[in-house]
Specification:
Length: 106
């Protein structure tokens, strides 16, 4: 990946973390999930279509949060690559400075 793509991934990951940590978002998702479970429990056994729809809703909610969590992990990985590249560049410059320094000491 290039630096721009990594920077974009870091930004998206941080935004996703902000969403998942947001109190209003958390309350809304908890409410939605508890409503789905409550409706599922009340759903008659004969209502297979209703049960399937509620299961799909539950899976969509989980998939949404998993997608945000994936963005967070991708952002952390991208930040690690950025940091590693910076360290490698820094180490290359430090090595060059030492090599030049040795040449002058001789």
């Amino acid at each position: 990946m290039d630096l721009q793509a990594d920077s974009d991934a870091v930004r998206v990951g941080r935004n996703a973390a902000d969403v998942l940590e947001n109190e209003a978002y958390r309350k809304a998702m908890d409410s939605i999930q508890s409503q789905i479970v409550a409706q599922w429990k009340e759903c008659p056994i004969r209502d297979l279509e209703g049960q399937r729809l509620l299961l799909q809703l539950a899976k969509v909610a989980e998939k949404f949060e998993a997608t945000l969590a994936g963005y967070i992990q991708a952002g952390k990985l991208a930040q690690h690559r950025i940091d590693l590249d910076a360290q490698r560049n820094e180490n290359a410059a430090a090595r060059a400075a030492r090599t030049v320094g040795r040449a002058f000491r001789r």
